[in-house]
């Protein structure tokens, strides 16, 4: 095992990784931007290095500055967290070229799965179900219209690069398709540097379910259960739970087996997620994408399996065996993303946090990126903290969640805590029958 690790990220995920590193006796090194100097993760690390200004391009996306910080602190490994450079094959290669341990999948696996069209083709070859769609980039709106007629409406229009639902649009006719195609291509060029577009069949009333996989140092790939991720706004996840209330035992078995095949097809190592779209009526699923990193919602898997995924990432990266023998689930876990945003419009908010009171109690876990007296700026994702709860079953977990959300008190910037409390009162969430259209139904057809 290496003796020190540099965490190339910020906020709650940086603090999360620092916590496990220190528990394992590793030296934890943080990097931070000028805007983040006062955040908890900086103080919690054994050493912290200022790497640049608030703008991500000058700090958390500045590979040269991060690698220089690793050199100055004699770091032996780099953990990228999620977001920023976590799924950059080029950065992973540069880390390895410096003689450092990359705590993540092989660069080739990142590159192969980073292109959604290439990923679709690979998954089809591996026997993983994929939705009807295209097998190469769509060059223009006219071709997109032709392909959509072949596929059948509704269709998803999404960038071939990137992830997390960014730039995705679901359309039901040619006029909306042409508009979405141009908007998505422009967004993809701006955000990802390339405008390649993918079209796939969209399933109305679908659920978004993902499988956590772990590629071991000996080449074995194991599945650690699934997570329900259908509570979304702007195609971004807000609440996740495990196990999924919409997946039968038979479907679960097929999804986990397919996820293992997906990991094996690309020689996967470390933690990753295979995301799927589930048709609850037909109890069928299709591959969406593979996230070649640790997911924001990984705590729900940790809570139901008792497995520290960051510890396993460290062990796999060091070429060591994992520390568990069974991943049998226990009980039910739910994660709520507490965001600095208006609870009605979901527009991000900023400002100093003047009050921060966390809930405490059995089955409650808080992964926080901020604290009282810190400031939320416009430069980063509005995620403040993750409130995670575990119970003996789903009803028990939701009861604990209700009490925890009522006790979570933040003042300063607006937060989505009122929305999360409202969510618990929705019958379709309470009984587990919800799908990806839930938030739109709560906020009306024009909801973002």
CATH class of the largest domain: Alpha Beta
Apparent shape = globular
CATH T-level topology of the largest domain: D-amino Acid Aminotransferase, Chain A, domain 1
CATH superfamily of the largest domain: ATP-grasp fold, B domain
The assigned CATH architecture of the largest domain is 2-Layer Sandwich
Beta-sheet strand percentage? Answer: 25-35%
Number of helices: 15
Spatial sequence of strands, sheet with the most strands: 13-12-9-10-11-14-19-17
Q: Radius of gyration, rounded?
A: 21 Å
Q: What does the average pLDDT come to?
A: 95
Integer tally of domains: 3
Overall description:
It is an enzyme of class 6 (ligase). Keywords: ATP-binding, Biotin, Ligase, Nucleotide-binding. Residues 1-444 form the Biotin carboxylation domain. Residues 120-318 form the ATP-grasp domain. This protein is an alpha+beta fold and 448 residues long. The protein folds into three domains: 4-103, Rossmann fold, CATH 3.40.50.20; 132-201, Dna Ligase, domain 1, CATH 3.30.1490.20; 207-443, 2-Layer Sandwich (D-amino Acid Aminotransferase, Chain A, domain 1), CATH 3.30.470.20. It has helices at residues 11-23, 40-44, 63-72, 89-97, 107-114, 116-125, 141-151, 174-192, 249-265, 298-305, 309-317, 394-407, 417-424, 427-430, 438-443, and strands at 4-7, 27-33, 47-52, 77-79, 101-102, 155-159, 169-171, 197-201, 207-215, 221-233, 236-242, 270-279, 284-291, 332-339, 351-352, 355-357, 364-368, 375-376, 383-391, 409-411. The chain has an eight-stranded antiparallel sheet with strand order 13-12-9-10-11-14-19-17. Helix 4 (89-97) packs antiparallel against helix 5, helix 7 packs across helix 8 (174-192) and helix 12 (394-407) runs antiparallel to helix 13 (417-424).
């Amino acid at each position: 095992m290496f003796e020190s690790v540099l965490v190339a990220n910020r906020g709650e995920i940086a603090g999360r990784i620092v916590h496990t590193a220190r528990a394992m006796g590793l030296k934890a090194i943080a990097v931070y931007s000028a805007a983040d100097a006062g955040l908890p993760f900086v103080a919690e690390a054994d050493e912290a290095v200022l790497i640049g200004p608030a703008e991500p391009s000058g700090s958390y996306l500045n590979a040269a500055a991060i690698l220089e910080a690793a050199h100055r602190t004699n770091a032996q490994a780099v953990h990228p967290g999620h977001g920023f450079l976590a799924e950059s094959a080029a950065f992973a290669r540069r880390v390895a070229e410096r003689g450092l341990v990359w705590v993540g999948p092989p660069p080739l696996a990142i590159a192969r799965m980073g292109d959604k069209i290439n990923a679709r083709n690979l998954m089809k070859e591996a026997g993983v179900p994929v939705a009807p769609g295209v097998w190469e980039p769509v060059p223009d709106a006219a071709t997109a219209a032709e392909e959509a007629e072949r596929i059948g409406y509704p269709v998803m229009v999404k960038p071939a690069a990137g992830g997390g639902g960014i730039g995705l649009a679901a359309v039901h006719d040619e006029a909306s398709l042409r508009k979405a195609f141009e908007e998505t291509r422009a967004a993809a060029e701006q955000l990802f540097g390339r405008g390649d577009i993918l079209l796939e069949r969209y399933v109305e009333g679908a659920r978004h379910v993902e499988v956590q996989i772990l590629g071991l140092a000996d080449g074995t790939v194991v599945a650690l259960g699934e997570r329900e991720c259908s509570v979304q706004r702007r195609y971004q996840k807000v609440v996740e739970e495990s196990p999924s209330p919409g997946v039968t035992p038979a479907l679960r078995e097929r999804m986990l087996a397919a996820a293992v095949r997906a990991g094996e097809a690309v020689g996967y190592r470390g933690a990753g997620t295979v995301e799927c779209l589930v048709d609850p009526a037909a109890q069928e699923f299709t591959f969406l994408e593979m996230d070649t990193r640790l997911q924001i919602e990984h705590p729900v898997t940790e809570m139901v399996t008792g497995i520290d995924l960051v510890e396993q990432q460290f062990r796999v990266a060091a070429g060591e065996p994992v520390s568990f023998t069974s991943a049998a689930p226990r009980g039910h876990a739910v994660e709520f993303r507490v965001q600095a945003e208006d609870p009605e419009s979901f527009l991000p908010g900023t400002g100093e946090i003047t009050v921060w009171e966390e809930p405490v109690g059995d089955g409650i876990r808080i992964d926080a990126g901020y604290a009282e007296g810190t400031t939320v700026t416009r430069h980063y994702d509005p995620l403040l903290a993750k409130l995670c709860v575990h119970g003996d079953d789903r009803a028990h977990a939701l009861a604990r969640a209700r009490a925890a959300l009522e006790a979570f008190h933040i003042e300063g910037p607006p937060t989505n805590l009122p929305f999360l409390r409202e969510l618990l009162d929705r019958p379709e969430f309470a009984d587990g029958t919800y799908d990806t259209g839930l938030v739109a139904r709560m906020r009306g057809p024009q909801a973002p």
